[in-house]
Amino acid sequence: MLSFEILSQDQRARTGLLVTPHGAIETPSFVAVGTQATVKALSVADLHKVGSQVIIANTYHLHLQPGEELIEKMGGLHRFMGWDAPLITDSGGFQIFSHGAGKEHGVGKIAPIFPEEQDRARHLSSRKQKPLVKVNEDGVEFISYLDGSRHQFTPEGVIAMERKLGADIILVLDECTSPLHDYDYTKTAMERTHRWAVRALEEFLHHSDNKQALFGIVQGGAFQDLRKESATFTAEKAFDGYAIGGSLGGSTEEMHQVLEWTIPLLPQDRPRHLLGIGEIENIFEVVKRGIDLFDCAAPTRMARTGTMFVRDADRFRIHILNAQFRDDPRPVDQACDCYVCSNYSRAYLRHLFAAKELAAFRLASIHNIHFLESLMRRIRTAIKEERLSHLESNWFSPK
Amino acid sequence: MLSFEILSQDQRARTGLLVTPHGAIETPSFVAVGTQATVKALSVADLHKVGSQVIIANTYHLHLQPGEELIEKMGGLHRFMGWDAPLITDSGGFQIFSHGAGKEHGVGKIAPIFPEEQDRARHLSSRKQKPLVKVNEDGVEFISYLDGSRHQFTPEGVIAMERKLGADIILVLDECTSPLHDYDYTKTAMERTHRWAVRALEEFLHHSDNKQALFGIVQGGAFQDLRKESATFTAEKAFDGYAIGGSLGGSTEEMHQVLEWTIPLLPQDRPRHLLGIGEIENIFEVVKRGIDLFDCAAPTRMARTGTMFVRDADRFRIHILNAQFRDDPRPVDQACDCYVCSNYSRAYLRHLFAAKELAAFRLASIHNIHFLESLMRRIRTAIKEERLSHLESNWFSPK
Question: Which residues in A lie closer than 8 A to residue B74 (C-beta atoms)?
Answer without folding.
Answer: 327, 329, 345, 347-348
